[in-house]
Design brief:
Elements (H helix, E strand, L loop, with lengths): L11 H18 L2 H11 L4 H29 L1 H21 L4 H10 L1 H4 L2 H9 L4 H12 L4 H16 L3 H6 L1 H14 L12 H8 L2 H32 L3 H17 L1 H11 L1 H19 L5 H29 L4 H30 L3 H25 L24
Length: 413
């Protein structure tokens, strides 16, 4: 059978819909990150409470990702995405009209996780239309929807400042998600190759395999690092360098752009040179950048370091999800949900590490040293596992030994 190129295969309206759904959902998921420095003026918070506030949406996304992954298996990614967008309206309305205490703000933050759980429906919607050799790029394009973070960090604090209220930002966020819901409903389409629903026992069988835990750990560092920093950097720039809320969010935007737009680059390059080889470079780069940030250099320098570090983490997200189908081609739907949830847990832990160590030491130095060591540990794990994989399913180049073929093995959760 003659193989088709990427742009001649798949279903472009569904790929675009997956990107758009993920984009607006990501925008809403990280809404509290930049707004946290303004919200803190209404609810007095210490560094740990601020860290908890920006970490809760990530925790909610990690937990609910498994729920949406299960629904994606049984009712399809399109209907799951529609449900996800409708439920996302609940915390937006609550944040707009019904928050009067920090405890209520925590509830809203946790419920925003339903937007972060969009990963479990958006990626299957796109990936199920493409064969293995194109899945790295397809999932990278859909996953580039994390660029929605850019809109939040760039405009959320400006809108709050203009209207003199952070609550109005939640109200205005209802508009784009309703518009995307309409577009998504009209043009998205489930792949005819959607696999049969998985049983819960199959999840348990997957977790008995050591490689599954390895991929969870790898994605915990790349995606967890990206989304954790995206949520926390506004606080970092505000606390460490004394930047005003809007200015701090602008600097965060610059870093987020790097992570967002290099995700598909990571998937594309991994398709060419192999995901393991690409990840080796990216973990090394991220670790070096984070170690340098720990010295707390002048603002222009730290911005450059964080930009490159986030670029490595964002590209790493695409590389991990190029690699996973090569090992778990028959269970990729299950692995998508499991690995995605692990990434969310990494993002939940990162603000807590930085917030708690800042409260204890009065400096971010130790926190960023910890993050650099975590990246180094991921690199060491990858190197060790790569030597083992070369004897089983991976060639010397870091790519799968067998040539990818057109296949009904697709992504489902």
């Amino acid at each position: 059978m003659e193989r088709k190129g990427f742009w001649q295969s798949g279903h472009k309206p569904s790929l675009f819909s997956a990107f758009l759904y993920f984009d607006v959902s990501f925008m809403i998921w990280v809404l509290i990150g930049p707004l946290s420095v303004i919200i803190a003026k209404d609810f007095a918070m210490d560094p740990v409470q601020k860290a908890n506030l920006v970490a809760l949406p990530i925790l909610g996304g990690s937990i609910l990702r498994l729920v949406l992954g299960f629904l994606t298996d049984y009712i399809g990614p399109k209907r799951t995405g529609q449900i996800g967008m409708l439920v996302t309206l609940v915390p937006l309305v609550m944040g707009w009209k019904f928050v009067h205490s920090l405890d209520q703000m925590y509830i809203v933050a946790l419920l925003l996780g339903i937007a972060g759980a969009s990963f479990a429906a958006a990626l299957p919607l796109a990936g199920q239309w493409y064969s293995k050799e194109h899945q790295g790029l397809a999932m990278g394009i859909a996953g580039a929807g994390n660029s929605g973070t850019v809109f939040t960090t760039l405009f959320a604090n400006r809108i709050a400042q203009h209207y003199g209220s952070w609550e109005v930002v939640f109200g205005l966020a209802i508009i784009p998600i309703v518009l995307v819901f309409i577009i998504f409903t009209l043009i998205a389409k489930d792949s005819p190759n959607r696999p049969a629903p998985k049983k819960l026992s199959q999840y348990a069988n997957i977790l008995k395999q050591g490689d599954a835990w390895v991929f969870c750990a790898l994605y915990c560092v790349t995606f967890g690092g990206f989304v954790g920093l995206a949520n926390y950097l506004t606080i970092f720039f505000n606390s460490q360098y004394g930047l005003a809320p809007v200015r701090a969010a602008d600097f965060t935007t610059i870093c987020v752009i790097a992570g967002s737009f290099f995700r598909p680059v990571g998937g594309f390059l991994s398709d060419r040179i192999g995901g393991a080889r690409m990840l080796t470079i990216l973990y090394g780069g991220a670790g070096i950048m984070l170690a340098c940030v720990a010295t707390l250099p002048p603002l222009p320098v730290v911005l450059t370091l964080l930009f490159i570090g986030m670029m490595c983490l964002g590209a790493g997200n695409g590389s991990v999800f190029q690699l996973v189908p090569q090992r778990f081609g028959n269970e990729i739907g299950l692995m998508t949900g499991i690995v995605g949830a692990a990434g969310g847990l990494g993002g939940y832990a990162l603000p807590l590490i930085l917030g708690n160590l800042y409260k204890s030491t009065g400096s971010y130095m130790l926190g960023f040293i910890c993050l650099a060591l975590i990246a180094a540990a991921a690199l060491c794990l990858l190197v060790v596992m790569q030597m083992r994989w070369r004897n089983s399913w991976m060639g010397e180049s870091g790519k799968a030994k067998t040539t990818p073929i057109e296949s009904a093995q697709t992504i489902s959760g």
